[in-house]
Amino acid sequence: MTGTVLLTATVRPNTTMYLVQHDPEARLDQYRHAISTWATQLEGTSFDLTVVETSGATATELLSAVDPRLRHRIRTVQFDPSGSDASRGKGRLEADAIACGIAVVEQDSGPDQSIYKSTGRLVLRNARRLVHPIPLDTVRVRMTLDRSFADTRFVGARAHAWRTILLADAAAVDEEAGIYFEHVLAGAVARSAALQQIRIERFPERPHFVGQSGSTGRRYRRGFTSAVPALSLLTERGLARLASRKQT
Questions:
Q1: What does the alpha-carbon distance between residue 235 and residue 84 come to, in Å, rounded to a whole number?
Q2: Which residues contact 32 (CB under 8 A, 6 or more apart)?
Q3: Nearest in space to 56 (alpha carbons), one of 35, 80, 29
Q4: What is the C-alpha separation between 206 and 225, in angstroms, rounded?
Q5: Which helix (H) or strand (E) holds 181?
Q6: Distance between alpha carbon 158 and the CA centroid of its chain, in Å?
Q7: Spatial contact of 116 and 122, defined as CB atoms under 8 Å apart
Q8: Residue 131's closest CA among 205, 25, 219, 233?
Q9: Phi/psi of residue 103, nearest 5 degrees
Q10: Fewer Cβ atoms within 10 Å of its own Cβ: the N or the C terminal residue of the chain?
Q11: DSSP alpha helices (H): ranges in 43-89?
């Protein structure tokens, strides 16, 4: 395998801070749908699927909707959140869960694996156009122009970059203080890009999410998921070319 798509999942929430959807049965159904959809989308590609669950839900529960032919392409990881500081919010727990999943992937397949992290209850309509091998020392991410905020719903980098750069400052996440995972990851990426340690690369087109946000309850149906007006495909590609030139 060239890489993996890593989904974070919490069937029974570890914290209720800034969380709208609490019902475990509803959450489990959403995770089942997302995992099954991702497994089908990745069929025939060089990417497998990794699911990191943080509340004790079993692989049997999570994968029950997956085509049996595809289950061997799914790696399930149980993360014990007891060592994380839940008082700092679900973003801190998510960062720690991602780090756990990255470590397992690295151990299985080495530090050069391309890893796309996606929020576990969401799927991408255009996943097959976005999930491709990631060049060395490159991060694929959508960020604000001032690079102070990153869209962490879907981010890609190689395993080594995830461990040494993207997650390096995860301990700084403190949602009560208004410091979210989106800010911390953006800061780490921006600093490393300024030091020419990595190259920031935009996606060839905007990710089109489908599903429900656990934080706000918002449902994504038609792909218009940004807090700012949607970028046209032409604009997205233009920004990708501009970002590429500015990083060289």
A1: 40
A2: 62, 63, 64, 65
A3: 80
A4: 10
A5: helix 181-194
A6: 13
A7: no
A8: 205
A9: -60, -40
A10: C
A11: 59-62
Amino acid at 124: L
Cα dihedral 180, 202, 41, 123 in deg (nearest 10): 30
pLDDT reported for residue 243: 41
Read off the pTM. Answer: 0.85
Q: Which among 52, 110, 111, 49 is positioned nearest to 84, based on CA atoms? A: 52
- Rounded CA-CA distance 220/198 in Å is 31
Structure tokens at 97: 């869960």
**Beta-ladder partners of 200:** 139
What is the mean pLDDT of each successive set of 10 residues along the chain, which is 248 residues long? 94 69 86 97 97 96 97 97 86 94 97 96 94 97 95 97 96 93 97 97 94 64 44 41 37
Report the pLDDT value the prediction gives residue 20, as an integer from 0 to 100.
64
Cβ pair 120, 38 in contact under 8 A = no
Residue in this structure with the two tokens 């959450």, named with its chain if needed: 27
Cα 42 to Cα 46, 73, 128, 144, 229, distances in angstroms: 8, 9, 7, 29, 29
